[in-house]
Amino acid sequence: MSLATASLTSLRQRLTSGEISATDIIKDVTTQIDNRNGDIGAYLRWDPELALAEAAKADISLPLGGIPIAIKDNINVTGQSCTCGSRILAENYTAPYDATVIQKLRAAGAVPYGRLNMDEFAMGSSTENSALGITRNPHDLNRIPGGSSGGSAAAVAGDLAVAALGSDTGGSIRQPAALCGCVGLKPTYGRVSRFGLVAFASSLDQIGPLTQTVADSALLLNHLCGVDPRDSTSLDEEVPDFTANLGQDIKGLRIGLPKEYFIDGIHPGVRAAMETAIKKWQALGAEITDISLPHTDMGVATYYILAPAEASANLARFDGVRYGYRSSTATNLMEHYLQSRGEGFGPEVKRRILLGTYVLSSGYYDAYYIKAQKARTLIRRDFEEAFQKVDLIVSPTTPGPAHKMGELKDNPLQAYLEDVFTIPVNLAGLPGISIPCGTVTEDGKQLPIGMQIIAPHLQEARMLQAAHAFEVG
Ligand code: GLN
């Protein structure tokens, strides 16, 4: 069995017992990439020589010693390119520094290995918006892996990586994890430093782990969190050992089911999977309560004002002057900007920049941007009230399983609606995890379904304890 198929936790045991070495793992992961990446397209680039050299030096006594972690292509690693799935950064940009999460992973002994495909600048839910290639769902190569961290989810679920990092602004870790059948965790906003993550929407972005198991998620999260002087939004809060509560029972845990998340539009297979899951929660001793999050229907509209507004400001830096793509035909400064950006950005990114500049322009600012900020407050309050009554909230991660490649390509509005269950969690800054929850059969293929568990601010440990109980129960 390839070591790439083993969990992080089990690999750590075998490393410390001396049964395997860190270079054995890199070799097996490389073989898997060589054999399968041509079909799946999860990785954009990988450098086995570098990884082998780093693995040979890895200190196995450290908590993640010798474990390769694959990295979404919007997180900076010194000396490597960081394309964000965009033509504008594909050539001409080499990261001059390590993101804080990369520094932390290295300090824990892990080896960052390989760069994973994504929707351009993390805008999308299918990875079809990447300018650099297609990523396919390992369960059905005709279907999307989800996005924007589609490369991360496909690599982990397709056994091309032990574990990966992704980023989540409106669902980009949880949604692809659900559609590919792995575990994806978005931490509380501010838990993990964003320093070195290329910004999409700064008030929403968080980095998090995609893993094969909940225990792996907890272990990896232990080495991502913490206050960082280089990210003023990072939280100066104690970071517990997220693995400590795993294995404890969840008797008496109060779980809320928001009625707005069990609407008619969801796929019958998703509904059936959730019904089975609810019985399982009860069998594990949880108390199930119906709750309401009354402003849920504002979530998608609110997000698609605020996220593009922030993106339009964040992406202003890509002007071809200091780094990135520069048009070769411009004859004056204005042409230089227009052509470099016009040729460098793909259609979805342009749509977001247009939307964002529109809602921020004078005359529309109050009508759209300020109004969306108010709606965001209402959505946050919904959760605060719900968490007076329950400990955790459970919902489907997505309304349906992975759709076919190209199905929503010309229907951006429908694609935006797919984020309906994940977006409110980002707007409220809460932690959320997606774990596998059964399958539905389409075209003779078994397609994974994800269940989302949402916790109050900073309660990742409680969320992971419940997710683990469900996974092993
Ligand atoms: N699908 C959402 C979007 O397109 C979320 C993306 C994300 O979380 N990065 O914006």
Cofactors, ions and other ligands in the entry: glutamine
Give the class-level CATH name of the domain at 3-222. Alpha Beta
Strand line-up of the largest beta sheet: 1-3-2-4-6-5-10-11-9-7-8
Count of distinct strands = 11
Task: List the uncertain runs.
Answer: none
With helices defined by DSSP (H or I, 4 residues minimum), what is the helix count?
16
What's the CATH H-level superfamily name of the domain at 3-222? Amidase signature (AS) domain
Gap from first CA to last CA: 25 Å
Secondary-structure element pattern, one letter each:
HHEHEHHEHEHEEHEHEHHHHEHHEEH
Tell me, what's the shape? globular
Q: In what range is the share of β-strand residues? A: 5-15%
Task: Give the second-level CATH assignment, the architecture of the domain at 3-222.
Answer: Alpha-Beta Complex
CATH fold descriptor of the domain at 3-222? Amidase signature (AS) enzymes
Mean pLDDT reading:
97
Q: Could you give a short account of the major beta sheet? A: 11 strands, mixed
Roughly what percent helix?
A: 25-40%
Indicate the structural class: alpha/beta
Rg computed from alpha carbons, rounded to a whole number of angstroms: 21 Å
Write the layout of secondary structure elements.
Blueprint: H1 8-16, H2 22-40, E1 43-45, H3 48-57, E2 68-72, H4 87-90, H5 100-107, E3 111-116, H6 150-157, E4 163-168, H7 174-180, E5 183-186, E6 206-211, H8 214-222, E7 254-258, H9 268-283, E8 287-291, H10 299-314, H11 333-344, H12 347-360, H13 365-389, E9 392-396, H14 412-417, H15 423-427, E10 432-442, E11 445-454, H16 460-472
Helix pairs in contact: 2-3, 6-7, 8-16, 10-12, 10-13
Bound molecules: glutamine (GLN).
